[in-house]
Amino acid sequence: MGVESNSGSEFREDQHAGQMSADDGPATKSDRDHGEPRESAGGPDDLKTEVQFLRGVGPRRAEMLQRMGLRTVRDLIFFFPRDYQTLAAVTPIDSLLESESASVHGELESVSSRRTRRGMHLVTARLSTHEGEVKVAWFNQPFLANRLHNGMRVVLSGKPKNRDGQWEFSNPKWMVLREDEAVPSGQILPVYRLTEGMPPQQMRSIVASALGNFLPSVEEVLPESFRRDHQLISIHEALKGIHAPESEPQLEEARRRLVFQELLVLQLALAMRRENLQAKSRAPRLTSNAKIDARICRLFPFDLTEAQRRAIDEICVDLGREVPMNRLLQGDVGAGKTVVAFYAMLLAVAHQHQAVLMAPTEILAEQHFKNLQRLLSHSHVSVGQLTGRLKQRERTDLLEQLESGDIDILVGTQAILQPGVRFRALAIVVIDEQHKFGVKQRAVLREAGEDPHYLVMTATPIPRTMTMTAFGDLDVSTLEGRPPNRQTIHSYLGEEDSRDSWWDFFRKKLDEGRQGYVVTPLVEETDDSQEASVKSVFENLCNEALSGYRVGLLHGRQTPEEKADAMFQFSTGELQVLVATSVLEVGIDVPNATLMTIESGERFGLSQLHQLRGRISRGTHPGFVCVFADPKGDQGRERLEAFVKSNDGFELAELDFSFRGPGNMLGTRQHGMPPLRVADLLRDRDVVLEARQAAQSLIGQESQWLDPQFEPLRKQVLRRYESVLDLGDVG
């Protein structure tokens, strides 16, 4: 494992900083209710000891720790370092070698700060040691001027250079020592997230105290034979290795054990939920045959692609069982997922059952409704629409038809889950881009007497490791490729000096009869943002580049009526251009829209840019997208260049995953799912797969899973995921 070092100071903030736990997470109220503090560990209850009773803590420091969510000994033990600082061995000045890593120890003198002629911020100092002095300089780290001061005892680590007989260190790593603290040499030091008033060495000391006194109280939840099969060290070895590693291999072993345990607990929870649903639920059997297949396929004015047919076959196998289907259908933009979903719903209708298609917005629900009406115009299948905009009388009539069975397919928003919505014979629910549809929403349908099959669609291609975690209790069907009739989209990264020529081209295409979008990330201008708001972009375009053209406005703060009106005018051609925020990402299809300008492109993720691009050229004309951006750094430009070069959503999703991480890419489908605290889904891909296989193997062998040796593990799964995954009656 490559240990990341803190190149400037131990105070560097990190976007991933936070409390990490492979055990139960932060202590609950019951955890904190305890008796008299114990001098030494005697059992699990010792871990409930409040931090103020640890040697060297007391009430004041306990208050600081509580600000970080650290209330008990357990919290401290499972508060993992966010980084590590590796110091080279301390070397006497007369033994230093040019450009070879070394550390020196002494006191800082003559600390000063200034700007160079080139505008660079320079902090300089002299380090006084027993053997003499070395010069030190830190470039472009102005915050150090407030953190370093004369007389401070420090260890500096870096590659020295000898200039005219004087040793110098440039941008060395540094560490402050207390007067009584021993000089570390060649150690890997943990770097913890800190709060104001808590020095790094103090935090290390407090965690070390918790480990030294209470480590034996930590329960081992993985049986020895299981650990041996998966080559895992014990929990006690792992906790020692993560907090105080003596070598990089030891740190890697410790981390792997903790990552594996965290992922295993998650995968077991997902597997238990899946097994529970399958054991308790019974959905209608919707078998397919050649006759039904032919009747359904005749309704489509085109031939199904091989990928669509393959997905339909997978879905039909699920629908033919009494166990409710729980499947994710993912595919690139324009891959034809809706057609697959329509097939599944029509299969339910063929068996005299009902189907539901639920969309995240009224705009998208309206589009699905109209597409189904058009597709089924010459059939006997009836389609209804339920959204929050229906008048009371219309809603009452619709609900009566739904309950009597006069409506075969219902399209709508979350309004479908409101009280009073009852079906005669609901068989399948299709959820389009509804990542927050989970336990609570399913419970609503179950309480209404329904236990249908579920098909979740997403047009955001999801990296494989994420499908095994955020969607781990679903089977996955993937539509690769695009239908052969989809038009090419040409993508460009615009420079400021090319704006005029782009708008010339944009206007030329509008004059030819095409339509276009202009996308910007913000609704209103703010003091801390340089990006123009959608409103100011709209006004500027109307007065300048698009003066004389019919331009509309669409953003998330408009009323549903205003949004629907803007989209209607654009879809009918009344508007030539729609200026919008990313609300457009999940919008309607306008075949004549072939142009898109994206402002402040650096503010969007790769997958989001790809989704936006997928709004155009859904008809017979090629598309053109130009992204104007001000990328910060090489990585920002690399992201945008990747978008321009590739039209493959799965390729871009993997890149987005590597650039941004899972937390920023996709919200967790199960609302309220605790975040992963140790594992990194990009770095730990292999461990994700191994943990998933191990979990499925355990759950698949009931006698093994229910063996008393796995009882601690079962309890941990329930403690962590019971509430969010509805596991109260499992295990």
Characterise the protein shown here.
The chain is of the alpha/beta class. The protein has 5 domains: 1-84 and 190-218, no CATH class; 88-186, Nucleic acid-binding proteins (OB fold (Dihydrolipoamide Acetyltransferase, E2P), Beta Barrel); 220-280 and 683-731, no CATH class; 312-479, Rossmann fold, CATH 3.40.50; 489-665, Rossmann fold (3-Layer(aba) Sandwich), CATH 3.40.50.300. Helices cover 37% and strands 17% of the residues. It is built from 25 helices and 22 strands. Strands 6-7-4-3-2-5-8 form a 7-stranded mixed sheet, with no helix packed on it. It has a 7-stranded parallel sheet with strand order 12-13-11-14-15-10-16, with helices on both faces. A 6-stranded parallel sheet has the order 17-22-21-18-20-19, sandwiched between helices. A hairpin with a 2-residue loop joins strand 3 and strand 4 (132-139). Helix 8 (248-280) crosses helix 23 and helix 9 packs across helix 11 (337-350). The protein is globular, with a radius of gyration of 30 Å. The chain starts with 28 loop residues before the first helix and ends in a 6-residue tail after the last helix.
Number of domains: 5
* Spans of at least 5 consecutive residues with low confidence: 1-41, 664-672
What's the count of strands?
22
CATH C-level name of the largest domain: Alpha Beta
With strands numbered from the N-terminus, the spatial order across the biggest sheet is 6-7-4-3-2-5-8
Count every helix, treating DSSP H or I runs of 4 or more residues as helices.
25
According to CATH, the homologous superfamily of the largest domain is: P-loop containing nucleotide triphosphate hydrolases
CATH topology of the largest domain: Rossmann fold
Shape: globular
